[in-house]
Amino acid sequence: xxxxxxxxxxxxxxxxxxxxxxxxxxxxxxxxxxxxxxxxxxxxxxxxxxxxxxxxxxxxxxxxxxxxxxxxxxxxxxxxxxxxxxxxxxxxxxxxxxxxxxxxxxxxxxxxxxxxxxxxxxxxxxxxxxxxxxxxxxxxxxx
Length: 143
Hints:
Layout: H1 2-11, H2 15-18, H3 25-33, E1 37-44, E2 47-58, E3 65-74, H4 83-97, E4 100-105, H5 114-123
Parallel strand pairs: 3-4
Antiparallel strand pairs: 1-2, 2-3
């Protein structure tokens, strides 16, 4: 898992998020041992060159779930080899085995995510949605 975090940090140019403040071993063990988190890696000679982190979201309106791709990355030197596609297809197979009815992902609209949008368009159906980040304010939690 730490090698996957390092890969995400390098690919996303965000070492402060993925490398500098990694959770402890106990936290990672609980996360990996839980039912809702899925991590897959692509290896080249035993080295992590790509990976996917996803969450299974149990639905309330029906007895089913959805799987959300939270992060997907492939090291630059290993791109254009079908690794991301293989990771997504493996995740979809795992999701089907869990009874999930869909896998979904979001992509930014900027030019830096053009390749990701092209990949996702090849594998799935595009939906028009808006994404909002709502800050968590502990002081307003009692209202």
